[in-house]
Amino acid sequence: MIDASVPVSISVPTEPLKFKVVLIGDGGTGKTTFIGRHLSGKFAQQYIPTRGVDKHSLTFDTNYGQISFDLWDTAEQERCNGLGDGYYINSDAAMIFFDTSSRSSYTNSSKWRRDVSIACPNIPIVICGNKVDIVPRIVKHRDIDIGKDGDGECEYYDVSAKSLYNLNQPFLYLAKKLTNHNDLHFISQ
Q1: CATH number assigned to the domain comprising residue 97
Q2: Is residue 51 a part of any domain in this protein?
Q3: Distance between CA atoms of 148 and 134, rounded to whole angstroms?
Q4: In angstroms, rounded to a whole number, what is the distance separating the alpha carbons of residues 85 and 77?
Q5: Is residue 185 part of a domain?
Q6: Domain encompassing residue 136
Q7: Is residue 106 classed as helix, strand or coil in its secondary structure?
Q8: Does 67 map to a domain?
């Protein structure tokens, strides 16, 4: 017999919120390594170019429940072949990578931003200056003006897949923007 004076709590598992995030940028900027570091915890020493697109899912526990990012890791040649727009369609957010030890990858990041903004207007975009562990750093923090031009929703983070520096920050920013919960935070497991 159930005692009606004792509150009963039934927890119903809920599906995580899912968001499509496209990762773009020049080849060799560390997009695949960044994802791999999250998924396996290992740092890939060898550069193996992505062919086409690789899809991965990354889930975070938050104070608002689980959030899952479906990551579309695109290859640089997709932009050259005009196929990038097809991968961008229905994206909820974008992460644009450049290598802080490569001036040209930084310069090209504004072109990547323009391309994704045309295909997916008004989505949040995170610019990731990867490889900040490499010395000398060619693209200095004071030189970075992408995301400061008022052209849409954009945020910048220095990151390092190798040293784990700011590894979760881009995802936390996107989670807050996509859920409209500024007090959202990741819960350690």
Answers
A1: 3.40.50.300
A2: yes
A3: 24
A4: 12
A5: no
A6: 17-179
A7: helix
A8: yes
| 21, 17, 146, 101: CA torsion to nearest 10 | -60
As for how many domains the chain has, the answer is 1
Placement of tokens 């989505």 in the chain: 123
Is there a domain that residue 50 lies in?
yes
Q: Where are the alpha helices (DSSP H) in 64-183?
A: 77-80, 84-88, 103-119, 169-179
Write the single-letter amino acid at 43. F
**pLDDT digits (tens), the chain, 189 positions:** 555 555 655 454 578 899 999 999 998 898 988 888 877 666 566 655 555 567 889 999 999 999 999 999 876 654 444 555 678 889 999 999 999 999 999 999 999 999 899 989 999 999 999 999 988 899 888 888 876 555 556 899 999 988 989 999 999 999 999 999 999 999 975
E strand map for 26-117? 53-62, 65-74, 93-99
**Cβ(53)–Cβ(85) below 8 Å:** no
